[in-house]
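> call design_seq(struct)
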């Protein structure tokens, strides 16, 4: 049985018609972003050795290879979550495979709850930093020195150069993009009002259940990271209503097309730089 990311990368090299340079992980409600491009290869996760099954709502579970401009791009059409019962090693497995395929830029997307009243549902947030409240770290265990050092620095975690380019492109496209700090919890229960108040007090603008493990793993192996969160609901700091997956997916789909256009412009003009 194939069990290592080295073996999986070798397996994928035999399947893919060309190798990608940019990776994109699509979060809740954003899987349709990949459908806007003509795929040159589509591989369901269940066929890929070492990949888990994506069970979260709206996560389609496909690896899609295409080009945007002249840049080869590999989409993960859905991700794996800690709350699905997978280990941290399962969550970061695809990121390490991407590294071995030659990807040097990773764009991560997610859906999040807002801890700020001025970050309304439908807003696009460029993540500038994060707080890990998942209770664990994906790098715990024996370090693979071939991937990265034992104690990787988390400075410039979300690449400043790429974020500057996003500001330029967003201005040219007249797309409003805010900046914020993302806090990750394990889930799957949503946060209490007291928890949200605490998160906001320590500097978080958004809360969600993903992204941080993949970002840590990417930086560990030297991949530059750009991340976006689409605000899909206000946290219960601002109301007493129960959230629903329908609400979350609705707001993600509304903002998703704007985010797709912005990401496409960035990749076409800066993906190979």
């Amino acid at each position: 049985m194939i069990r290592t990311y080295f073996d999986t990368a070798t397996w994928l090299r035999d399947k893919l018609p060309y190798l990608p340079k940019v990776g994109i992980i699509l979060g809740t409600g954003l899987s349709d972003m990949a459908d806007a491009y003509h795929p040159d290869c589509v591989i369901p996760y269940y066929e890929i050795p070492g990949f888990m099954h994506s069970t979260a709502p709206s996560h389609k579970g496909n690896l899609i290879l295409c080009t945007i401009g002249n840049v080869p791009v590999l989409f993960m059409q859905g991700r794996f979550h800690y709350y699905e019962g997978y280990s941290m090693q399962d969550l970061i497995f695809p990121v390490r495979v991407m590294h071995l395929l030659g990807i040097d830029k990773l764009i991560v997307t997610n859906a999040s709850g807002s801890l700020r009243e001025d970050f309304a549902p439908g807003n696009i947030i460029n993540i500038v930093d994060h707080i890990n409240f998942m209770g664990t770290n994906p790098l715990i265990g024996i370090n693979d020195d071939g991937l990265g050092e034992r104690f990787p620095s988390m400075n410039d975690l979300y690449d400043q150069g790429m974020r500057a380019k996003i500001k330029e492109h967003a201005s040219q496209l007249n797309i409003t993009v805010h900046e914020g700090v993302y806090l990750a919890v394990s889930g799957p229960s949503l946060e209490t009002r007291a928890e949200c108040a605490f998160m906001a007090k320590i500097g978080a603008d958004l809360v969600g259940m993903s992204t941080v493990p993949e970002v840590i793993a990417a930086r560990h192996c030297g991949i530059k990271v750009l991340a976006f969160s689409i605000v899909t609901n206000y946290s219960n700091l601002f109301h007493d209503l129960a959230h629903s997956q329908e609400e979350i997916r609705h707001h993600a789909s509304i903002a998703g097309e704007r985010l797709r256009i912005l990401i496409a412009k960035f990749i076409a003009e800066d993906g190979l730089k």
